[in-house]
């Protein structure tokens, strides 16, 4: 297993284009410190799990990894600086090297995609991600380096068929309509530093090229409720398309279960060149307030002013709003339930277009059942030079996957999904009916 830890450390080193500091320091758990005699209690405490354990500065030397941005469990952190429920699961492989805590995580999907109707298509493609993280204590806080890459560019500039999806461009001239764009090879190269303020507070600074600003819920491939699905949501460009932004600086304050953060970032969508690193002015702004009232819930509300986000619409700015609730809970021994409810709004030239999403998954041992229902008000489904009328469209997907261990920390998943699309009368003739069907069958390799 040591080679996995070394690979994660090397990948995190790429993020800073430098070598990881070496140290002869190693982790040697010692005996627990003596504690005062406990007072009598009448009700026994429930067993403590990983996400309930103390991860403050005094405990991090002898306990599981704490969060990068504050004195809480790492299980609270998702993509970028976004939060998820403390009860969320983490599939990464963890280890230590010197004074560093390392984590590696990876998912590789091989997908056969069929989208029906007149505007549908078929395609075999690969998607996924490989992530490496390294963190170590710094004073009363933490420093973290993270890198994430994706095989998505191998599917070609036009991405894969996905009815009712829109956003970005394949060639710098034409919109991608009824297709999901490939993500860039570099999904994240970031560094962060935090310092604790009191027993349950912290200040943090995060920077990425690319990185994820403080807007929206965690990116869809990191949300526990739907991460088993290889299908992107049609609401992606309302909620979380900023998860690959080429230039981000975020500052935040954590006070217990509350986090307030703000970002300056480059809002321009990645262009059709998917292998490179782009640059641009940090002229857009996002603000997000997050609150985890219990271990099983995570709430956020966010606002963003996006300057010149669309390559094909230069000079046209957007305002976006988002709110979401994420849920995760072990409902019985061996059973895990997760859910998402999210809303996003895009305001362009005084047009207010909304998107709504509901996601859920039920996991039992090797099986995961997952589903998503969503609605968007989309002005890009007609191939026009500028935004057309808003069409309210919907999609519902249901699928399952079974993961079979094939080696230490590696599982092979076999799964599939079926989706039904819902179209208004004005669009139905273009698609060959009001309810075209889509389906995906997939194999996946996952580190766990």
Helix and strand arrangement:
Blueprint: H1 2-16, E1 93-97, E2 100-115, E3 122-138, E4 141-149, E5 160-169, E6 175-180, E7 186-196, E8 201-208, H2 236-239, E9 248-255, E10 258-265, E11 284-291, E12 297-306, E13 318-332, E14 335-348, E15 351-364, E16 367-378, E17 391-407, E18 410-422, H3 428-431, E19 437-447
Antiparallel strand pairs: 1-2, 2-3, 2-19, 3-4, 4-7, 5-6, 7-8, 8-9, 9-10, 10-11, 11-12, 12-13, 13-14, 14-15, 15-16, 16-17, 17-18, 18-19
Descriptive overview:
The chain has 448 residues and is mainly beta. It has one domain (2-12, 55-447): Porin (Beta Barrel), CATH 2.40.160.10. It contains three helices and 19 strands. The chain has a 16-stranded antiparallel β-barrel. Strands 5-6 form a two-stranded antiparallel ribbon. 46% of the residues are buried.
- Could you say what the CATH architecture is? Beta Barrel
DSSP strand content: over 45%
- The geometry reads as globular
Report the CATH C-level class.
Mainly Beta
Structural class: mainly beta
Order of helices and strands: HEEEEEEEEHEEEEEEEEEEHE
The residue ranges in which pLDDT falls below 50 over 5 or more consecutive positions are 1-63
Query: How are strands sequenced across the largest beta sheet?
Result: 2-3-4-7-8-9-10-11-12-13-14-15-16-17-18-19
Keywords for this entry:
disordered N terminus; 448 residues; Porin; mainly beta; 16-stranded antiparallel β-barrel; two-stranded antiparallel sheet
């Amino acid at each position: 297993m040591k080679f996995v830890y070394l690979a994660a450390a090397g990948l995190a080193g790429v993020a800073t284009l430098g070598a990881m500091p070496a140290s002869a320091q190693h982790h040697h758990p010692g005996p627990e410190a003596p504690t005062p005699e406990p007072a009598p209690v009448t009700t026994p405490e429930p067993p403590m799990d990983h996400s309930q354990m103390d991860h403050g500065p005094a405990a991090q030397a002898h306990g599981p990894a704490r969060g990068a941005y504050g004195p809480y469990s790492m299980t609270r952190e998702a993509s970028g600086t976004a939060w998820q429920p403390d009860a969320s699961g983490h599939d990464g492989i963890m280890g230590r090297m010197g004074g560093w805590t390392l984590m590696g995580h990876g998912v590789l999907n091989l997908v056969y995609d069929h989208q029906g109707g007149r505007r549908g298509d078929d395609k075999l493609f690969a998607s996924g991600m490989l992530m490496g993280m390294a963190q170590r204590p710094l004073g009363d806080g933490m420093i973290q380096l993270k890198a994430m890459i994706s095989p998505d560019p191998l599917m070609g500039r036009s991405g894969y068929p996905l009815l009712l999806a829109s956003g970005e461009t394949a060639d710098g001239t034409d919109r991608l309509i009824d297709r999901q764009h490939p993500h860039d090879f570099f999904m994240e190269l970031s560094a962060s530093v935090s310092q604790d303020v009191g027993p349950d507070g912290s200040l943090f600074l995060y920077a990425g090229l690319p990185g994820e600003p403080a807007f929206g819920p965690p990116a869809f491939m990191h949300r526990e409720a739907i991460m088993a699905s290889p299908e992107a949501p049609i609401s992606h460009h309302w909620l979380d398309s900023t998860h690959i932004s080429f230039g981000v600086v975020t500052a935040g304050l954590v006070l217990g279960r509350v986090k307030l953060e703000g970002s300056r970032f480059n809002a321009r969508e990645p262009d059709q060149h998917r292998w490179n690193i782009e640059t641009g002015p940090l002229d857009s702004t996002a603000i997000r307030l997050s609150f985890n009232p219990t271990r099983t819930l995570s709430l956020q509300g966010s606002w963003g002013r996006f300057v010149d986000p669309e390559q094909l619409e230069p000079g046209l700015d957007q305002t976006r709003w988002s709110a979401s609730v994420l849920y995760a809970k072990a409902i019985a021994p061996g059973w895990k339930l997760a859910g998402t409810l999210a809303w996003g709004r895009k305001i362009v030239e005084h047009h207010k277009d909304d998107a709504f999403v509901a996601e859920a998954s039920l996991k039992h041992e090797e099986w995961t059942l997952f589903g998503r229902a969503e609605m968007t008000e989309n002005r890009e489904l007609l191939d026009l030079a500028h935004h057309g009328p808003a069409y309210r469209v919907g999609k519902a997907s249901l699928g399952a996957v079974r993961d079979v261990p094939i080696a230490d920390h590696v599982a092979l998943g076999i799964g599939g999904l079926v989706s039904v699309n819902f179209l208004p009368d004005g669009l139905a003739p273009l698609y060959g009916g009001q309810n075209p069907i889509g389906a995906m069958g997939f194999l996946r390799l996952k580190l766990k």
